[in-house]
Structures are given as structure tokens and as C-alpha cells.
Write a structure and sequence with these properties.
Elements lengths: L7 H16 L25 E4 L5 E13 L5 E10 L2 H6 L4 E7 L9 H11 L5 E6 L4 H6 L7 E6 L3 E4 L10 H10 L8
Parallel strand pairs: 4-5
Antiparallel strand pairs: 1-3, 2-3, 2-5, 4-6, 6-7
Length: 193
């Protein structure tokens, strides 16, 4: 798998940018990703999803049939679909899913192909966990809640399980295989285990 390391200058710039966003954040609205306990917890996560959306700061990577596509036998073809998240607080409070939050930055490109590998995780773990992709600059409050100081970062959370952070900050460099291993250590193996 590809190594997720870059120049020291780029890492420092990313850290400074993230810290500036976190410190400059005074918003408390939904766009800022404020996590509140939802009065309507107990709902299904799919109720919080909207239309296809590939350019929003908050999307859910969902493994589902691709509209209008079938295989030679007429069976639906499945793929990762990016769905708008209508209510992030309600989504994360839902009782029917465990979430892998993928914090990233829209300011920097994905020159290591990490998003494609996260899509593969979403596909391989469909039915076990749901991948939520969040632009940390838009969801400063939530990034702050998990003490995110470097991107990309991964958080496992879900109803009744607490949360675990992968820990990008503590690592000098890492590979997506390390993320896969971390998921397996927490009960979510892409190898069916």
C-alpha cells in the first residue's frame, strides 16, 4: 500500500492550517459540526442521508446499487455512492451503525490516493460499519472533540461504543495497511474475520 508521508514543510503547513481553523472557530452551528445529543436518537442512519453528493464537506460513503446499472444477468451492480448527510448530529447518534469518520482537508489534494483506499474500506466493511467523510475545516467543533491536530485522521465511533482515534499525530509516517490493521484490532477486519 502507498506510504502516507510527505515533506516536513507540507506537514507543518497542514498542522498550522488545522490549528488556525480550530482556534479561529467560534461557530456553534450545524455547519461547524457541533455534536449534540439528539432528541431523536434511536433512528436509523439512512434516514439522515440525502441525494448523491460528491462535492460536499460531509458525505457518507455507502455501498449500494448503482442506479441504472446491471450485470449480464440483470442483477444490480453495486458501488460506493457518496450521499449527502442531512443531519450529522442525528446520523452519529443513530443506534444502528458504527462509523469510521475520515477527517481530511479539501485545501490539500489527495496525492497519496487515501480517499480511494478509504472507499475500498467502505466497500469491504459494508454492513459492519459506515464511512463518514468530513472536511475538518468545515467541522472544526467535531475535529476538536476528537483532538484532531493532523490530517488525514480516522475515528471509530458509534452508539454505545465510545470512540477511538487512529492517531496520525503520534506517527511520523504510516500506511493505509496500518489503518486496516487498526480497524481489525478494533473488531473490523476487511478479511472477513
Amino acid at each position: 500500500m502507498q506510504k502516507a508521508s510527505g515533506s516536513v514543510t507540507r506537514r507543518i503547513a497542514a498542522i498550522i492550517l488545522l490549528i488556525a481553523f480550530l482556534l479561529g472557530s467560534a461557530s456553534c452551528g450545524k455547519k461547524g459540526g457541533t455534536v449534540q445529543s439528539s432528541a431523536s436518537s434511536g433512528t436509523g442512519y439512512r434516514e439522515c442521508l440525502g441525494e448523491f453528493a460528491y462535492d460536499l464537506p460531509a458525505v457518507c460513503m455507502v455501498w449500494e446499487p448503482v442506479e441504472g446499472e446491471t450485470d449480464e444477468s440483470g442483477n444490480p451492480v453495486y458501488g460506493i455512492q457518496y450521499r449527502e448527510i442531512k443531519d450529522l448530529d442525528k446520523l452519529l447518534a443513530s443506534t444502528d451503525a458504527v462509523f469510521l469518520i475520515y477527517f481530511h482537508s479539501s485545501v490539500y489534494g489527495d496525492d497519496h490516493g487515501i480517499t480511494a483506499l478509504v472507499e475500498e474500506i467502505a466497500e469491504r466493511l459494508a454492513g459492519k460499519l459506515v464511512v463518514v467523510s468530513l472536511d475538518a475545516a468545515e467541522f472544526k467543533d467535531l475535529a476538536g472533540k476528537y483532538q484532531i491536530t493532523m490530517l488525514p485522521e480516522f475515528v471509530l465511533c458509534g452508539y454505545g461504543r465510545g470512540s477511538k482515534v487512529f492517531g496520525t499525530t503520534e506517527k511520523q509516517s504510516w500506511t493505509m495497511q496500518e489503518v486496516v490493521d487498526w480497524l481489525a484490532e478494533n473488531g473490523y477486519s476487511i478479511n472477513g474475520g
